[in-house]
Design brief:
The chain is α/β, with parallel strands linked by helices. It has 21 helices and 13 strands. Bound molecules: D-mannonic acid. D-mannonic acid binds next to helix 11.
């Protein structure tokens, strides 16, 4: 086999002879969007839609500049820099069909730890109209028990005193907005694309809390000028594997150091509330609606919660992937029962959406055998995810005297998992979580205080004080600690 060709702008014409590649002129693109958090999801979703829009040859002002705010973003920065922002997207269909294309919508990438000024300047550039975010569920810096901004963070403290030396997303946003205000430029829209209910409202609340403390006049200007649309974003994007990189080399002779793989399904529902213009994404399938909240809630409480249910129970059982869970009839039945009797009653009316059809489609998506979405990706950062995906449902059901036992078994399993870090066969489970240590410490106390795990207020709020939940939880804990065969306990419930 001849040497693989590297994915770069210079090689694009040659690559385009055998892989679908941008047909628009990337040179003519101007950066209109600065995106913080260029992970797989952003590249499979927003950058994909933007690329599609650019293919209409009528969206030159909407190229993306990616921004990494953490040292951990260095690898994606290095790769995308080397590849001129280009990457391959590999869409894997359930029938084995694979579609590969080169995405060209990311025109530049910056790493704040190397050049903080460049990031502020890019956001403050007159051409920038939107700053979008995928900073993960844990990135919004709020306390789950109070919902308030967490000022105890040392970087935040530093930024409050030194507005010209930003560290976190909040510091960068206010530094750039201040520059725009000083130069009489219009504000940009701040568009959250994370899996949080009311993601725009939450972002607004956090940015405003921070700005009010840092500079009350600026805060007033932000309040009057910046919009924060809520959105629901959806596309299952597993972690890229070495096999994906090798697939491109073997199949196409292409050397892409960090391609993205994803499912065919994609959805983006967003409120049409932009302070400084927006791309015409409706031309490529994005839905603009006046109120996105019911969609967000449906997606978070069925898809994301469904993932966590399968992920945590699956990890304990020893399943490696979500599709492996879906080959296990007990898991399928458990998931559907959870969705039907615990998640669905908490949802709002959604005109034109049949929830049974939606749930059927989720089952089909989870079962896609080619996605091989790892249980470990789903379980990662559960301390940030579960309050939004599962615990909110549990609280609603407690209030409405509905069933809570399906969610409670998941929480109890999460405790066991955090405590022992082993599956039922004694194989180690790697816990990937910013709070891994705290989770382990709390879970370890279960033998002396069975409620220790759910007493972590930053995750569970005051739920441990709820008698019905506490009793149900204790019962599940006793079952699991007594016999780790989680599938047996699931079977008893369905
Ligand atoms: C997953 C999501 O992070 C998770 O646990 O549920 O990444 C999910 O795959 C996406 O939100 C799908 O849109």
């Amino acid at each position: 086999m001849k040497n693989a060709i590297s994915l770069t702008q210079n090689n694009l014409a040659e690559i385009a002879t055998h892989i679908t590649s941008p047909t628009y002129s990337r040179n003519d693109l101007e950066i209109g969007i600065v995106h913080v958090g260029v992970g797989g999801f952003h590249r499979a979703h927003q950058a994909f839609y933007t690329n599609k829009l650019q293919e209409t040859k009528n969206a030159n002002e909407w190229a993306i500049c990616g921004v990494g705010l953490r040292e951990g973003d260095r690898k994606i920065y290095d790769v995308l820099k080397k590849q001129d922002g280009l990457y391959s997207l590999i869409i894997k269909h359930p029938d084995g069909n694979i579609e590969t294309s080169i995405i060209g919508s990311i025109k530049d990438i910056l790493l704040s730890v190397d050049d903080p000024k460049a990031v502020v300047q890019r956001m403050a550039n007159p051409q920038t109209k939107i700053v979008s975010l995928t900073i993960t569920e844990g990135g919004y810096n709020f306390d789950a028990s109070t919902g308030e901004f967490n000022f105890n963070n040392t970087d935040i403290q530093h930024e409050l005193q030194n507005p010209d030396d930003p560290k976190t997303v909040f510091g960068y946003l206010t530094a750039a907005l201040k520059k725009r205000w000083d130069s009489a430029l219009p504000a940009f829209t701040i568009m959250s694309c994370d899996n949080i209910e009311h993601n725009g409202d939450v972002t607004q609340k956090m940015v405003m809390s921070f700005a009010k403390k840092q500079n009350p006049d600026l805060a007033q200007w932000i309040e009057n000028n910046v919009s924060f649309p809520n959105s629901m974003v959806d596309r299952i994007t597993p972690v890229t594997t070495q096999a994906d990189i090798e697939y491109l080399e073997k199949e196409y002779g292409l050397k892409d150091e960090w391609p993205v793989t994803c499912e065919p399904f994609i959805q983006w529902v967003i409120e049409d509330d932009f302070s400084n213009g927006r791309p015409e994404l409706e031309k490529v399938g994005v839905q603009f609606v006046p109120n996105v909240k019911p969609y967000e809630k449906m997606k978070l409480r069925l898809l994301n919660a469904g993932h966590s249910v399968l992920g945590i129970l699956g990890a304990l059982h020893g399943h490696q992937t979500i599709n492996a869970c879906m080959e296990d009839a007990t898991f399928v039945k458990y998931l559907r029962t959870f969705m039907d009797i615990e998640a669905t009653p908490t949802l709002d009316q959604l005109e034109g959406i049949d929830l049974d059809t939606y749930k059927d489609s989720l089952e089909a998506r989870f079962a896609n055998p080619n996605i091989k979405d790892s249980v470990s990706r789903i379980c990662s950062e559960s301390s940030a995810k579960l309050p939004k995906f599962l615990i909110a449902t549990l609280s609603d059901n407690l209030e409405n005297h509905n069933s809570i036992e399906f969610a409670t078994l998941v929480i109890a399993s999460w405790c066991y998992y955090s405590d022992k870090q082993l599956n039922k066969d004694g194989q180690p489970i790697e816990v990937i979580d910013a709070m891994a240590k705290e989770l382990h410490e709390a879970a370890k106390q279960t033998s002396t205080d069975p409620l220790a795990f759910i007493k972590q207020k930053s995750i569970f709020g005051n739920l441990a004080d709820n008698e019905r939940f506490a009793n149900q939880y204790k019962e599940k804990i006793a079952k699991i600690y007594n016999d780790t065969d989680i599938r047996k306990h699931m079977k008893e419930m369905i």
